[in-house]
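Two quick folds needed for the group meeting slides. Do the first one here.
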Amino acid sequence: MSTIKKKIGIIIYARTSSQRLPNKVLLNIEKNKTLLDLVYKRVKRGSYNLPIIINTSLSFKDDKIVSYCKKNNLKYFRGSLKNVFQRTIKCCDYFQIDTFVRVCCDRPFFDFQLMKKMIKEHKSDITTNQLPKLAPKGLACEVANIDIFKKLNQNKLSKFEREHIFDYFYKNKKKFKINSEYCFFSNKLNANDFSIDTRKQFAKIKNLLKNKVINSTDTTRNILKKVSRFY
């Protein structure tokens, strides 16, 4: 643990205003567990006891997430709904974080073992498994130093770049120190989407959990071995 930088935080991005599946992060996906429960507990297993922050918006629709965080004694931060880039900077400033891990709350199979490895080995501006994109959708993991975000002129960022906060850095990768964690998956798995964005995807994963085809506490590697035939 001595190799890990101080002031690292894990940020889980959650909102209720998903257009295709509103309120998905607070829907029950396994017994009495919400999707947010499931993702939080997976992240916790690889967190080195670092602070975990639920990052949501100031929209009244996300009051539900704040109430949930207060009820469960979870750290949270609220900021701009559309400018996630700015919200990330303000969140890190508020919690005095130098380096953060980005986790989206639509990733029920999030790889906590990979995250743990990436946190330990992080020595660049960004450590990612998304350059090139070898991992299937829903298995992305990124660690970044917040100072590279602060140095950018946000007024020059596109609307897309403000929402998808690593897009600018990947398009301008030669300007930054980026360490790529190569994750090898079969071609079959590469084409799949293991995130939750629609009611159909939610129902599929809920059914796999209900019928004990998979266990939400299992490693990502073992889960993918079991679910590959269902995708």
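Then this one, please, same format:
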Amino acid sequence: MSVRKSAKSSKPAGRKVQEHAASRSKVARPLPESMVTGKASAAKAAAGDEPVFAYIATLPEPQRSIVEHVDALAARTLPGLQRAIKWGMAYYGVGDGWCFCCGGFAGHVKLMFVNGVALQPVPPVTPVAMGKDTRGVELGSVADIDEQRIASWMRQVAAVPGVGGKRR
């Protein structure tokens, strides 16, 4: 993951996420076309915290709150967390590989783990077109987030190679 050279990406994001959440508008917006069709957003690929926060800001409620919560959990759980937008979704990694992604869709948020088949317990959702080893969960509300289980999966997946990463 040589594209991530920003010093900002290695800073803890807890306060940034809170500031970002406080500054967002509470005005209801229609769903972006990509969320209705089941495709990822049209967000441009970019590395770093700011593109991910900008992507999150484009999501309507409740997807925005869910993704903000997952992002904050990731920041608390994984030291050295790095973020990027890839394939229209927020990707998260540590070290030299991407570990999981999170994206908003109509009615839910997908949280998918690269190498998810190696996690215990294996997450229940097998996504379409994301690789045969990817597994995850679909979250319909913030209440659906099992912080202990998801944090455990985040730690487990960070300990194995991510996409393009080397074995640690």
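Slide caption for protein two: The first strand starts at residue 46 and ends at 47.
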